[in-house]
């Protein structure tokens, strides 16, 4: 829980753009429903996901990181989320013990009801896998009663895996089609902040339409025009059959 | 939809006991929430699941079926559900074209928001598989606009698969742990109606406790004492991350 | 082999629209490369996939079938393929012994190098499953030396499964991204013949763009603008590593 | 149990050659250990697995079946097993209600401790799948207390799936490497009875050597020179960790 | 092999309680059959699995470890096993090169016929995964002829994975139901030593009853009242079909 | 691309023998087709795969490595490939940051169209898994535009996984049966260079025959006498249905 707010969520993003393309709708929706959402970016995607910037003459690493940070901050703001950057490097991402402890701290401080991250096995991008593994490990450590840190242990938050670029190649099977119709304008705005990857804006807008068609086919209201696919890792507990 | 009620569910049970042991909690819960629930029993389990009766001297098929019908009716009443019997035979169950049309009719008449049935692949019991396949086929046929029958086509109801006897052998992975604490007394009463399989009462009561422990471990309230595991077949559509 | 042509392919389509949406690009591409392509439609999709027609006042089954036939014939012509209709009924499709023998005959007469059909397990549409199973069975029977019919036995043609509507729900994992850029105009024309399902035209056009982006990501030429995803069932035999 | 013998096994073979190539070692081993083994051949493989015979001038169906029967009888004798032929046709195999009842009778009469058959999903040969499905269904029906036939119900025999021709394509994962060193000469003799498929003798002899190398790698004695791979379908119950 | 004993087994337990709950029956059974059994605990579970202790006022890490060690020693004694503690930390567990070499040494010194450990993928507890991976790596290194240490290389011991807390979520499919009826009193005694997790005693006692019911259903003797589920990782080599 | 040659391939081999047994045919075939092929050996297999050498009296590590290097060089020469040795140790293999950077350099320098390596999950040999993971990570890092090294970024080369020793235990499903008939003499020569593992020569020669039989069964020319099984990881992009 973030101070003064009833519910919260935390997103662990391997690179600073992932949370926008893959979970921007979920984030905006959660914010709309009163969640405090914190995004933790493990890296800026500075080496592997900034081709637009590297094509510019005289580009250097410091500038790439700076631009990527600013873009991600703007996107987070558009979505209504807080954002933190751990700057752990990308391609390959590496998560050492200190960084790991920081992630556990973020989780404990946030006391999230739900955690969002990548799938476990993306053959194209092993940084995504590491983010997934890191999240599961950090969730476990954050739960441990005997692990004494500034913030208290967490309960057992759900984990949502957001959609990878080539879903079938990653074993992704959506079991939640989020209706993001009411917040798609925010996701669009957030995507438009990402100049380094602007070729993806139409791609992910089209995907939202495609997932919306499927949402309707799965019993959703005909008014759904944009959706986002996610996969819950753990069983839901509740009293509702639907 | 059943006349006069806002929401409804339909359960397709291979044998007349299955809906009690495996979905009794879900049924009672749905009823409590205002659903009209209809159970359709494909057979009485008269040959394969009535060993208690067959041990009695002088038992014959007519009597077995009669007893099994009465027990199932009593169990359905305890749960608050309607019940219908198709008497298609068991071990092996066979579903011919006429029976299939009747099942489609039941589904269209009920207009269910959710359908409950067996898993797709139980190596111990192929009647269960046939019930699963029949449900998916009947759902599809009930949806067809060009299939003109007494009742209108249905939408796209969710399908819940209830827990098989040996879950891991059947590829069952629960993604819904239903909190049935508030209705467990009803499930217990329904189970107590099933004299032909009374050895299962403690087994399934213990299982409910076991699933409740897991429900709490997955973030459920500590007050949960009984739960039932189910697996949703299709993605959920909605606006909630949890 | 079709008389006078060196190579041939056969498509087994559960409903008369499936081959257009899901394999239109593959068909047009094969035709362009000199294959003779025969499409065998098991049904017209008259009950389950003609909602556009059934919404018209006074519509009847005979008219629906007639329109669906004409549309499919026009689409096949646009793609450059032959087409045959077995009129076996849909929702549910049923394939009796006589129809099965006819399918075997089509396969033997065609002597295809490649067979195209649906995936094996589509939870939304069991007619698709039956088409898949029928194809594998018919392939086997067409191979049998001791099965004496008008045409000689076939060899061991590859089987391509085309993309289902909700790929991840059907266990579809593409291992072939067909570059259909050069023939997309033909697929588009074929799709435009399908008035009963015209809402799908943009959907499948967008999908082709999406698969093209993925094709480029998997090493395809940057000039690829439209692609179609397929899954080969059997190993490829050859001398090329790529 | 077969009269006068303590233990028994039953093999359900889709075609009259399958039990020789794929389970000949298991059968001979069981016989050596005192099992009575009964082989039930659903068909002669007369259309699909008798290419050697069909190449002979003037061959006709009656002769093919006769030769196949004689070969299979000789092979069964070499292995020490009884054999029965149901002559249900092959490519495609069909199992009607009467044939099914006969299979249940064979199982009840035999009272087997173990059943052997094909895998569940062979994309090359759907007759194999049908044999698998038939076995599981017949096992279930043979267990039913309320199914009154000449022989009493059976218990819960293990099911072994023998190795298909292209194991990886059929989802076959061996969990039992049978040491058939002591009986390989019998399997070889049995294989040599199968003139219609003589090209397979070296193939399956080499396979036995290959599986033996793997058996040693999995902790078997270095003296193992021939082995056969099988997959148990159900859990083993016992007191041994190994 | 442990000096003076014919057969031996080694258990690799992530936390000091795991071997009791999940493999206590297997251990007691092995001891009863003359195996020497050594348990190697990678950690005390001091941070993540000692909530009972941490609730006590003034508790500190040294005391938790001391209590957990004493409890595990008492449990091992009740089961008849030797025990060693590596104290590598938990939540998260970490296995460095030195600890790894120690584990290899334990395995070589023991010369086990069978190794027991956790499953490969427990989404709730990544320490379990690391124990699994460590075991497979250490088994491989212990086999290497060119790896010269105080003890000789091992052969190819079987690996048993014991049952995780939420079996279906971990891909656990039991293929061995161990009849632990004759030793359940010892397992119960061992469980009663674990004061820090005493809430689990009834849970795992009930589980043993449940697995026993399944054991009987899979052909076990009706006298089985308690069982433990395990999954063998490698094929069995032998001459027995059952 | 290697200077002066149009196409190239890179093989990442955990131990210095793996590329010979498992990919020798693919390498020779690629060379025959004009590819420049570079083999990168992560270790010499000096501890775990040199049992023939270690049996010789007075053997030491330096000599084992020297012999293994010479054998692998001779084998590479027989196949027509370049070879490099990283000497990272085996059983267990370890890949530190510097070695990782070297692998990335090899890949960028080679600019391969195709990469060959081990499967992802071999329960018998975790060095193989690490080679697989290392390859995928290095491929990703070699692609990163912002990773500035001596050689330019690569495109998106295909990855082939070669056949592990016990294919079914490793989840290996071949989707490419390479016809190596024309180059098998070269593979045989290369295998004969491996004196430390000479027991494998007949094993892998027989395997090539076995895979050839399967290649013919999958539609390959009857002239195929030797084949090698591989599994492509990524979809193929192209215009050919076959």
From TrEMBL, chains A, B, C, D, E, F:
Q: Pfam families given for it?
A: PIG-L
Cite the EC number.
Answer: 4.2.1.83
> Any idea which GO molecular function terms this record carries?
4-oxalmesaconate hydratase activity
EC supergroup of this enzyme: lyase
* Alphabetical keyword list: Lyase, Zinc
Q: What is this protein called?
A: 4-oxalomesaconate hydratase
Q: Which organism is it from?
A: Prescottella agglutinans
């Amino acid at each position: 829980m973030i101070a003064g707010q009833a519910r919260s969520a935390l997103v662990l993003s391997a690179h600073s753009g992932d949370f926008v393309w893959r979970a921007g709708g979920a984030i905006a929706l959660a914010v709309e429903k009163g969640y405090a959402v914190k995004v933790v970016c493990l890296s800026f995607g500075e080496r592997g996901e900034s081709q637009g910037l590297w094509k510019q003459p005289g580009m250097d690493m410091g500038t790439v990181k700076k631009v990527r940070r600013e873009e991600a901050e703007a996107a987070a703001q558009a979505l209504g989320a807080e954002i933190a950057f751990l700057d752990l490097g990308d391609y390959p991402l590496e998560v050492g013990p200190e960084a790991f402890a920081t992630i556990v701290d973020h989780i404990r401080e946030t006391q999230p009801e739900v955690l969002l991250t990548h799938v476990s096995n993306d053959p194209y991008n092993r940084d995504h896998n590491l983010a997934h593994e890191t999240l599961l490990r950090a969730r476990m450590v954050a739960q441990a009663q005997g692990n004494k840190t500034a913030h208290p242990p967490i309960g057992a938050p759900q984990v949502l895996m957001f959609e990878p670029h080539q879903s079938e190649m990653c074993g992704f099977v959506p079991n939640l089609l989020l209706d993001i119709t009411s917040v798609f304008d925010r996701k669009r705005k957030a995507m438009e902040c990402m100049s380094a990857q602007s070729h993806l804006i139409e791609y992910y807008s089209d995907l939202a339409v495609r997932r919306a068609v499927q949402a309707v086919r799965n019993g959703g209201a005909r008014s759904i025009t944009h959706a986002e696919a996610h996969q819950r890792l753990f069983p839901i507990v509740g009293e509702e059959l639907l």
